[in-house]
Amino acid sequence: MKTYNDIKLAQELIRFPTVKTEDKGIMKFLSKKLTAIGFKCSIIKSKGTGPKPALNLYARSGKSKPHINFLGHTDTVANLNNWKISPFKAVVKNGYLNGRGSQDMKGGIACFISAISNFIKDKNFKGSISIIIAADEETTGLGTPAIIKYLKRKGEKIDFSIVAEPSSNKSVGDEIRIGRRGSMNGIINVYGKSGHSAFYGSYINPCTTLAKIISKLKNTSLDNGTTFMPPSNLEFTKMNVDNFSENVVPQSASAKFNVRFNSKHKSSTLKKKINKIINTVAKKEKCKTKIEYKVSGEAFYTKPNKEIYMVKNIVKKITGNSAKLNCRGGTSDSRFLGTIPRLELGLRNNTIHMVDERTSVSDLKKLSKIYYNILDNYFE
Prior knowledge:
Layout: H1 6-14, H2 26-35, E1 40-46, E2 54-61, E3 67-73, E4 92-93, E5 96-98, H3 106-122, E6 128-134, H4 143-154, E7 160-163, E8 175-177, E9 179-180, E10 182-191, E11 195-196, H5 206-218, E12 233-240, E13 248-249, E14 252-261, H6 267-284, E15 288-297, E16 300-301, H7 306-319, E17 324-326, E18 342-344, E19 358-360, H8 361-378
Parallel strand pairs: 3-6, 3-7, 7-18, 8-17
Antiparallel strand pairs: 1-2, 2-6, 4-5, 5-19, 9-16, 10-14, 10-15, 11-13, 12-14
Helix pairs in contact: 1-3, 3-8, 5-6, 7-8
């Protein structure tokens, strides 16, 4: 049975310049690697950022339970100018693997594929191992949902998932994500009555109304947080008034906002709460409103269970870190896994999305060892 070296595989993956949803042959490459160690692979298409569809990969070895899954993404961000070492050469220098995606998150993919290949070679396990690799985590976020729909149609159920996002902070395994807050964007459009500012009473100022709405929303507590998640917060990010004259009261004013919400809320209940506040103020000020929302992802949280404590113990044994369980960070493809118990555990995140992204070779080796031991303990 073939096995894969984590460093070499990470280098090979980085050399595919998969910016945004560009494939460049990487899914075919991964399918070939996984087929060689006994996986059945399927390519699932989703809408890409360009004219071509994004190609996403689902691979599974085994047919029975228990079913453990590893999830990753091959797409990377741009920011490719002014690098000291070419972003796609994947050069190892002074103990570091340099390249776009080395931390986020081709390095993590290489580690779990390497660990899986060695585990399958060493052990005769009963159960299933599957892999989800999306092509668009950084952009459209449609790849993992497409695979989840595919699994539902086939009646496949994942029992536990490990998402290889770069969750670690100062050293590998010092933090494990067991949830993430949800994210929702909104636009408030306020409509008043235009007029000359000298003629008080002849106009209805939407700017004043919008200011009162902003004040009311900012002074309304959404919640007090949870054990692992901070309080939900609403932040205004942009305001606009289409008016170029200082002595004219405009017809309309608008503001954009983002809400990061914890597991006490669903986006649907938050919308109702926010709408009620906005419309109460607007009615009092005799203005009309139009409110638009776009939900990036719902909040999710996996209550610490035996698998999470098992992983925590493995991290402690291998790295010496007593991993902190938290729900920090923005959104990730974890948000699409529904009720599947999961955690995020990967490399450090100190250079992700930056010029000169890199990861230490020793971190890659530690993470591969952690993943191998997770498999060994999971299938005991």
